[in-house]
Structure of 3'(2'),5-bisphosphonucleoside 3'(2')-phosphohydrolase:
Amino acid sequence: MTDHELAALLAAEAGRLLLDVRAEFADAAAQDRKDAGDKRSHDFLMAALAAERPDDAVLSEEGVDDPVRLSAQRVWIVDPLDGTREFSELDRTDWAVHVALWEAGELVAGAVALPAQDVTLATPSVAAPPPAPAVPRIVVSRTRPPAVALEVKEALGGELVEMGSAGAKVASVVQGLSDVYVHAGGQYEWDSAAPVAVARAAGLHTSRIDGSPLIYNQRDSKLPDLIVCRPELAEAVLAVTAG
């Protein structure tokens, strides 16, 4: 099984597990549902990666950061449940599972599962989004849209699309449901590694908001800002964010 196939398989299987957790905890408190989802998906991914790629290191949101990854040639970067709040709300579909592989300085494989939508986007082949609409759509958090995204919306004469998890937002650009995702104010490598791998496979622009590259498997796993957008909009977006 290739690394691409493994990323897709594990993201999809973790997603199915999370749907089962959601059903099992449907009548439980939201926090119990969140905790069970985080733990079970993390435990599944760690066990599966240990079995399938025992020599590789892993960086997971829900795990203890093992510094051995800093000297490893191959590191899986996973978010077992991206969008925990949305997962806990039983009518929402904008949450995800992220599985990415970093190797020798680059993201080389990745998958984003959207379990409640029965969708898994995975490298190496991801379809480019359909043609852009006349009015660009800027996807933002439904609870805390960053000021820079609002500035991009004004500069492009766009409209806002509210959505939950980072993975769901990037997937929406890949799927052609939105056109620009700009984030600033706090994320970690696991929030964006798999989505960025998928976005790059679809031919989208990905960078920090100052235009510099997104770099993974760093000692400090914080990676606080990013842009994912249609390539034809990148120059206009960066004129706002990097200006």
Summary: The CA atoms of residues 135 and 158 lie 5 Å apart. The beta strands are 57-60, 74-82, 96-103, 106-114, 119-122, 137-141, 159-163, 180-183, 205-207, 226-229. The two ends are 44 Å apart (CA to CA). The chain has two domains: 3-122, 137-241.
